[in-house]
Each structure stands twice: as structure tokens, then as C-alpha cells.
Specification:
The chain contains 6 helices and 9 strands. It is α+β, with helices and mostly antiparallel strands and 228 residues long.
Length: 228
Amino acid sequence: MMEIDTWVGASGKNGMRRDWLVRSQATGHVFARATSTWVMMNQQTRRLSKMPEEVRAEISPWFIEKQAIHEDSPEKIIKLDSKARYMNSNLKPKRSDLDMNHHVNNVKYVRWMLETIPDEILDSRQLSSIILEYRKECGSSDKVQSLCHPDDDGILKDGLKQTNEVNLLNGFSLASEILENNGLMDSFEKAPLWYTHLLQTQGERGSEEIVRGRTEWKKKMSTLPFSS
């Protein structure tokens, strides 16, 4: 049996944070961690707005100052362009994808991003972490384009840090047998792979960003840590 623990806390002067833990009720093993940051926005100006003191005073007694994910400030997610290696265009939301405000829900954003991940990665890897940066809403009439690009340089650097036997400077320039002879192929296969994502609208007036994202993929586990 699984249990989900969630709580809210402060994030800076004008933001709020909501965290989640998903774990086994029997063993306490944590299967997933998540965190989100929320800010107020002026609906007319579309700019961030300061949280009124009376609102903060009302909700602050409910804040719990602990974090599900302990990390430094995340790196800035770059904006992809037409040079992205993988692309899926003319994506259209269905009625079942909309929330009560008639905006596409978060789950659909993730699914659109994963549609651009190569099949060989989906077959050999599992999604380990995901970061999303929301830019604007997506409505029922919008046409969406999903862009995806691998972090080629970062993959090799991370994979070879464990051995320090060979220094790769130019991406995938070394042949696979060199990696095997130096005992690095196994390290490379175990190293996490990172992909950068962008969802944007497509229209006559050009494109507008919806969400930027980052996904991390690790080698699939042979067994899952479920208790019997």
C-alpha cells in the first residue's frame, strides 16, 4: 500500500511551495519526490504580483518548513529553436485534457514532452526526474509543437567522471571499442541522460512558449523496490 504526504511552505517573500512524498506505507521506502513553486499574477497586466500581507498572515500558520527535495537553485533551462533534434508538430488538446479553467492540464504537457523522446531511450531507460518551467496557458484551440534535444556533451562528461581514464572533448568522436577497451562502456550506459524540452504554440502570429522542461533518464532497473 502506498501513501502520499503533501504540505505547503514559504518560498521567498512572495511565493509558496508545495511538496510531495510518495512512499510505501509498510517500509517507508520513498518512490517519488516532488516540489512546486507558486506565485501570484495580476490577471490584467499578466505580471507577477506581491502577495497581500493579510493573505500571507492567513495562510502562514499552515506552512511547514521542510523540503521534499534538497538542492541548490536549478540551472536555467535554455530555450530550444528549430535546430532541436526531435520535433513533433500540430499537437491538439482534447476536451479531456482541459481543467476547470479550460486550460490544458499539467499531465498533458508531460505526455507531449515524452512523445519526442526516442524509442531506444524509452526501451532502455526510465524517467528519473523532470523539471518544468511554465510560461503561459494553453487553450483548447491552440496548436502545439513539442521540441526536444539531448545534452550530448553532458552525457559523456557525466559518464566518464567516474573513471577519469579518458578525457572526451568532442562529443561522440571516440569509437565504441575504445570505450569498451578502457572499461568505460558500462559506466557510460549507467550514466544518466538529460534532455531539454520546449512546448510552444503554433500560429499565424508566430510561436509563444508554453513550458520549458528538463528530463533525466536512468538505466531501467531489473526489479522494482516493492514490498511483498
